[in-house]
Amino acid sequence: MKQHILTFLALSILLLNGCKKDPAPVPDNPSDPHVPAFLLNEGSWGGNDAEISLLDLNSDSVTLDWFSAANGRGIGDLAQDLVRYGSRLYATVFTSNTVEVIDPATGRSIKQINMGTRGPRYIAPLNGKIYVTCYDKSVVRIDTLTLAIEASCPLSGMQPEQLCVLGENLYVCNSWQYDANGNSIFDSTVSVVNLNSFSETGKITVGHNPNRIKSLDSHRFIVSCSGDYAAHPAQTLIVDIDNNSQQPLPVAATNFDIHNNHIYLYNTSYNEQNLPYASFFRIDLNTLQAQPFLQNYSSTLSYAYSINIHPATGNIYICNSPYTSNADIYTFSPDGSLIRKVEGGVLSSKVVF
Hints:
Elements: H1 2-21, E1 37-41, E2 51-55, E3 62-63, H2 66-71, E4 79-85, E5 88-93, E6 98-102, E7 109-114, E8 120-126, E9 129-134, E10 138-143, E11 149-154, E12 160-166, E13 169-178, E14 184-194, E15 199-205, E16 210-215, E17 220-225, E18 235-240, E19 245-248, E20 255-259, E21 262-270, E22 276-284, E23 290-293, E24 304-309, E25 316-320, E26 328-332, E27 338-343, E28 348-352
Antiparallel strand pairs: 1-2, 1-28, 2-3, 4-5, 5-6, 6-7, 8-9, 9-10, 10-11, 12-13, 13-14, 14-15, 16-17, 17-18, 18-19, 20-21, 21-22, 22-23, 24-25, 25-26, 26-27
């Protein structure tokens, strides 16, 4: 016991010293295929049943109630996003209006940050800060050392969704909102937020209802636009901020991930009986040629809710999340062969490595 205490104290001193130099030291290598992954279960609207589970990448083992077992309480209502940054996990819980800070080694909550009535959505980390989009039309900056809200940047668009970092700017999707009569209206812009002044400095017009975005390199990002479900169809664009150009992908992405210079995506459509089916594609970033992928799984993965690729192995993790039962998590090899299927939680929505 004494040896354990001394070891803990020594590690604590090293961690504190590291924090002085780097606010977000990395305790291990999340890309290691032997390190368990974290499964975000969004939960049902109003069900207060969101959860974070632990996913063993080398077996059929899933610890479904990992967070609640460690804390004696659930994480809240509608868990929206989960990121691993340095030595912690950060989760936004939309309806509960919290950002949960979690020790990834134990599942214990370090702090539950009260977001008031902001409605936190998605997270982007950078340089010891996390940036959180909120449905009060803002981006909030939280310091990862103090775990305090430092500043809030108002946005002039509609309700913001995903965001990404590119150079000295954040790029934030402005999606949609209700008008005075309760009808859905759609934005078509991405806000540019300068990180130094932490202010909105401009907007880029893209497709209708942009909601998912990732940086590709030092000057390009990919943005998925869901359309208005009428006159403006869904589309996914590669935006080059250096030459102010946009190039559409041959297939619109409902959701996507990027690995080894390829975009992996699925597009959810509906048949004549209004039943969903998912089409999967792999797109080469050099040629933008779309190659059908997982062709035999369109009906099996009809409720695809996320796609995440392990950075080291290239294995593909797809959460198939019907509204009437627990999700299934499918693992495929890079060539599309099924490795395993395990049961997830309620509306499993992201695998974090």
